[in-house]
Design a protein that fits this description.
With 480 residues, this protein is of the alpha+beta class. The chain folds into three domains: 230 residues, no CATH class; 81 residues, Orthogonal Bundle (Helix Hairpins); 148 residues, Histidine kinase-like ATPase, C-terminal domain (Heat Shock Protein 90, 2-Layer Sandwich). The strands form three sheets. Strands 2-1-6-5-4-3 form a six-stranded antiparallel sheet. A five-stranded mixed sheet has the order 8-10-11-13-12. It has a two-stranded antiparallel ribbon with strand order 7-9. The longest helix is centred in the middle third of the chain and has 53 residues. About 6% of the residues have low confidence.
């Protein structure tokens, strides 16, 4: 039961049915009250009309015994100032709700103490002889006429009659039609509302099922992808423009990004294994030869292979830390000074640093970035490498900040980088010169590390063409 109610479809159906039920109950109650009020008003109008007809006869001087009081079996009472019943419709057996329970005319008796009190009360709202009061009062009660008991709406109208004082005419109109109409409406509601709620619940269930069918397809496909670990698969995208379609597209985008990330990691592991295999095999060969023939041991070659392994391991470790989202820190230092330190002692490298340009981040990582750019430039330059640092204002596209940015340019006079390869050079384990040996060209991680470090520091690293025709690497970092 809990699992069934836990589904979106069940909750939506239950919620829709509950809302419609509350609305139907409220609307039904309002309809019944309005119906009863309108029909009761009509009964009151009929009762008032009958009472005013009798009052008009009395005002015209009609005697009590000559009054026409039989109005479609509607009970009529005429009461004088003292509260005595002086005229009544025939066949009236019982009455309540008018204040006078008598059903037969009562003979007047002189000296009744209540007579003066009634007259004193009437003095507060006296009428002229023959005048019928405009005000009318309504009450609900019941009466038995010719053995039939029913509920009535009574209207009371006063009339001043010359020689008889103020008389009150009570006339009733039956409420049976009103009660029957309200009862019929209530019966229809009691039968129709459950059927309507059933229809609403069924339609909501079917509509929700149809609307959630693509979600179930997405869930099933995601479960299959998880089981098969095949990230090349994609969830079905419904041919709609709603939230479910956007969810499917976003899910496919996430799967594509995950597939790219996993494929990148696989290539990284494969390339790293390949790069590690060569120096390890060379070092093992040299050690085995040295073990068998000590006089043939190439100590310098072994040291060189060991250094290559050490550098490659350091590069792989740094890339792993960058991929793991290691924060660069918030140290503040002079970038121009850092560039001068990295350029010092390098043959053919000319630093052009002016005023101090302070940035924040990891001094070690940014030093590694500059060193990689200088190593790459020296490897491809014919004779000269120039590195400059300056500050530029404005928010240029690709890393500029409102407060300006630090610009580091490393230019060489080599062959440059072809336009088609200017993004590819920043990929891991990429060497544009296939004929170059690993000993001279490295593992192809330097520029990849440089760009990753730049991005982690909120900057950019791009390559273009230098004035001398070689490569121009431009590093932009936000100033401190």
């Amino acid at each position: 039961m809990r699992r069934a109610l836990g589904s979106v479809r069940a909750r939506a159906t239950l919620g829709a049915t509950l809302v419609v039920a509350i609305a139907l109950v409220a609307a039904g109650t309002a309809v019944l009250l309005s119906l009863w009020s309108n029909l009761s008003g009509q009964a009151g109008t009929q009762a008032e009309r009958t009472a005013r007809t009798v009052a008009a006869d009395l005002a015209a001087g009609t005697a009590y015994d000559q009054l026409s009081l039989d109005h479609d079996d509607r009970p009529v009472q005429v009461v004088d100032e003292s509260g005595r019943l002086v005229a009544v419709s025939e066949d009236l057996e019982r009455i309540s709700g008018t204040g006078v329970t008598a059903v037969r005319p009562q003979a007047p008796a002189g000296g009744d103490p209540d007579d003066s009190a009634a007259r004193e009360d009437d003095d507060h709202d006296s009428l002229s002889p023959g005048e019928i009061d405009d005000d009318v009062s309504f009450t609900d009660g019941s009466a038995t006429v010719e053995g039939d008991e029913a509920d009535y709406r009574f209207a009371a109208v006063r009339v001043e009659v010359d020689g008889k004082g103020t008389l009150t005419v009570h006339a009733g109109a039956p409420l049976s039609a009103e009660q029957s109409a309200v009862s019929t409406a209530l019966t229809v509601m009691l039968i129709g509302f459950p059927l309507l709620l059933g229809v609403v619940g069924g339609v909501t269930w079917l509509v929700t099922r149809r609307a959630l069918r693509p979600v179930e397809g997405i869930r099933a496909e995601m479960a299959a992808i998880t089981a098969s670990q095949d990230l090349a698969r994609r969830v079905p995208v419904p041919d709609t423009h709603d939230e479910v379609a956007r969810l499917a597209r976003t899910t496919n985008e996430t799967l594509a990004a995950l597939e790219t990330s996993v494929e990148r990691q696989r290539r990284f592991v494969a390339d790293a294994s390949h790069e590690l295999r060569s120096p390890i095999a060379s070092l093992r060969t040299q050690l085995e030869v040295g073990a068998a023939h000590p006089e043939l041991l190439d100590v310098d070659g072994a040291v060189e292979d060991t250094v290559r392994l050490q550098r490659l391991a350091a590069d792989l470790l740094l890339l792993a830390r960058l991929d793991a989202g290691e924060r660069p820190g918030d140290a503040r230092f002079d970038l121009a000074e850092l560039v001068r330190e990295e350029a010092e002692g390098r043959a053919g490298v000319t630093p052009e640093t002016g005023v101090a340009v302070e940035v924040t981040g990891s001094r070690t990582q940014l030093g590694r970035l500059v060193a990689n750019l200088l190593d790459n430039a020296q490897r491809h330059a014919r004779s000269a490498v120039t590195v400059s640092v300056r500050r530029e204002d404005g928010g240029q596209e690709g890393g500029g900040q409102e407060g300006g940015y630090a610009l580091v340019e490393v230019a060489d006079d080599g062959d440059g980088v072809p336009v088609a390869d200017r993004e590819r050079v920043f990929e891991r384990f990429v060497r544009l010169d296939a004929a170059r040996s690993r000993d001279d060209g490295g593992a192809g991680l330097g520029l990849a590390i440089a760009r990753d470090v730049a991005v982690r520091h909120g900057g950019t690293l791009t390559v273009g063409e230098a004035a001398a025709g070689g490569a121009l690497f431009e590093l932009r970092l936000p100033v401190a």
